[in-house]
Design goal:
3 domains; flat
């Protein structure tokens, strides 16, 4: 991030009363778990800066464009421009507020997909008698394959640079992990190490548990996919086919039946080139949303 932008963001954040920051603890946590590597005060200042720019730009453009589109008095132009500018600022602030949450959610899904493999990998290393700290050192080398390179890197950094012991480093990683499942597993590792338990056995049990959860998610996906397939056949195959045949015949015979001010040919064009492509796009989006990460 540019140093000048950081400086400007800090100036904006300094204008925010300290009592306001305490109301955004959820944003602070999401920012930490998203691994965006940006200070909370800098991010809030950046949010305020972005909202201010959005407000100003929307207000100016509205004043320039609205007189060409609408016949309103000068006072109403200013009022409408102010409303548009406020909506633009709120939208910008809302996006900045939700962006860390979206990054956190995406990273959580990517981590959860590989937890079973990662736990098995760590279990094999532990069964060979490797110390826990060395296990995480080896895990760092393949962290990208399991999408945990940032979390493991933070653990090693806390140990090697910050001088923390393994328990404290794992605790920090658990608190900043975007995945609740990974956080629970790290807490379990801490407990197992402290009581002198069988770390290999614990990790093997976790791997089996994550595997069962993964299979359950796949079964739910198959069930949901069957519902989507039935909806696809009903609304994007059978119904459009029936309407296209009916409207084509009506248009060919010169029928006078219309919906509102639209004749059969216009309705047919809207159905073919607007409604069906939009329906297909929504169906693809639904399947992509339901599909489990690989």
């Amino acid at each position: 991030m540019n140093s000048q932008l950081i400086s400007i963001s800090l100036k904006f954040s300094n204008a925010i009363p300290p009592s306001v920051f305490s109301r955004f603890n959820r944003l602070r946590k999401n920012l930490l778990k998203s691994s965006l590597n940006i200070d909370f005060k800098v991010y809030t200042g950046l949010t305020l800066l972005t909202s201010s720019i959005s407000f100003t730009a929307a207000f100016v453009f509205s004043l320039l464009l609205l007189p060409k589109l609408l016949l309103l008095s000068t006072f109403m132009m200013f009022v409408l421009s102010a409303v548009i500018a406020i909506l633009a600022a709120i939208t910008s602030a809302g996006f900045c507020y939700s962006y860390p949450l979206m990054i956190k959610s995406s990273r959580s899904k990517n981590i959860d997909v590989n937890l079973s493999l990662m736990a098995n990998f760590m279990s094999v290393l532990a069964s060979a008698g490797m110390p826990p700290e060395s296990i995480f050192m080896i895990l760092l080398l393949v962290g990208k394959d399991f999408n945990v390179d940032k979390e493991v890197g933070r653990i090693i950094r806390d140990i090697k640079i910050m001088g923390l012991d393994l328990h404290e480093a794992l605790k920090n990683a658990s608190e900043s992990s975007p995945s609740s499942r990974l956080a629970i597993m790290l807490d379990g590792i801490i407990t197992t190490i402290r009581v002198g338990g069988d770390l290999s056995g614990y990790l093997h049990d976790q791997a089996e548990k994550f595997k069962r959860e993964r299979m359950q998610n796949l079964r739910r996906f198959v069930d949901n996919l069957s519902v989507v397939a039935e909806a696809y056949v009903a609304f994007l195959v059978a119904a459009p086919l029936m309407l296209i045949v009916m409207l084509s015949i009506m248009s060919f015979l010169g029928g006078t039946i219309s919906i509102g001010a639209l004749d059969p040919l216009t309705i047919l064009n809207i159905l073919t080139f607007v409604i069906m492509p939009m329906g297909m796009a929504l169906m693809i989006l639904a399947v992509d949303t339901l599909s489990p990460k690989r």
